[in-house]
């Protein structure tokens, strides 16, 4: 614990290695979802790192377990709120006349495209072109290859690298 409080990264790595399965099992028992349990476990270790000054040198595993349980419960509540909000939108949409539904869908789609355009501007230049052509313009590999004077295999490779960049730099819910 002393090494952890002094900022020793190796000590923190050992702590994570030692308790990661325990924390994951606690989170999974609450969430029943592998990805969300992994997220909760990660947030637990971040919370532990940020709260080391509050630890009182007794019952570490109990303290760790309590943090993991609270993080999992927080994620579960967040998930349930999202479902309720989606249910409210669906209920509202079901009461609207058909024409209003089309207008609402069009507005939502346009808003999503605008958000996507903003996110694409954050990509490195080489990735912006390929992502815009494929996802926003709806062009095929062949069309993109012809326009950029490259092979379809190169288009495929560039799209793969752009998607990998997005996974590494953005949270999943951001794209």
From TrEMBL:
InterPro entries: RNA_pol_sigma-70-like, RNA_pol_sigma-70_dom, RNA_pol_sigma70_r2, RNA_pol_sigma70_r4_t2, RNA_pol_sigma_r2, RNA_pol_sigma_r3/r4-like, WH-like_DNA-bd_sf. CDD domains: Sigma70_r4. GO terms for biological process: DNA-templated transcription initiation. GO terms for molecular function: DNA binding; sigma factor activity. Residues 114-166 form the RNA polymerase sigma factor 70 region 4 type domain. Residues 15-82 form the RNA polymerase sigma-70 region domain. Keywords: DNA-binding, Sigma factor, Transcription, Transcription regulation. Belongs to the sigma-70 factor family. ECF subfamily. This is RNA polymerase sigma factor.
């Amino acid at each position: 614990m002393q090494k952890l409080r002094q900022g020793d990264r190796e000590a923190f790595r050992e702590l994570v290695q030692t308790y990661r399965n325990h924390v994951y099992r606690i989170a999974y028992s609450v969430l029943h979802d592998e990805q969300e349990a992994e997220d909760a476990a990660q947030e637990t270790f971040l919370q532990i790192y940020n709260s080391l000054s509050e630890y009182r040198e007794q019952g570490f595993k109990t303290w760790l377990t309590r943090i993991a349980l609270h993080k999992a419960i927080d994620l579960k509540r967040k998930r349930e709120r999202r479902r309720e909000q989606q249910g409210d939108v669906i209920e509202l949409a079901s009461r609207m006349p058909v024409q209003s539904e089309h207008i609402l869908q069009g507005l939502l789609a346009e808003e999503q495209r605008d958000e996507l355009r903003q996110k694409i501007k954050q990509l490195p230049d080489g990735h912006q072109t390929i992502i815009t052509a494929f996802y926003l313009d709806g062009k095929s590999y062949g069309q993109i290859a012809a326009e950029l004077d490259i092979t379809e295999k190169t288009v495929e490779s560039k799209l793969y690298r752009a998607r990998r960049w997005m996974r590494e730099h953005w949270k999943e819910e951001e794209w």
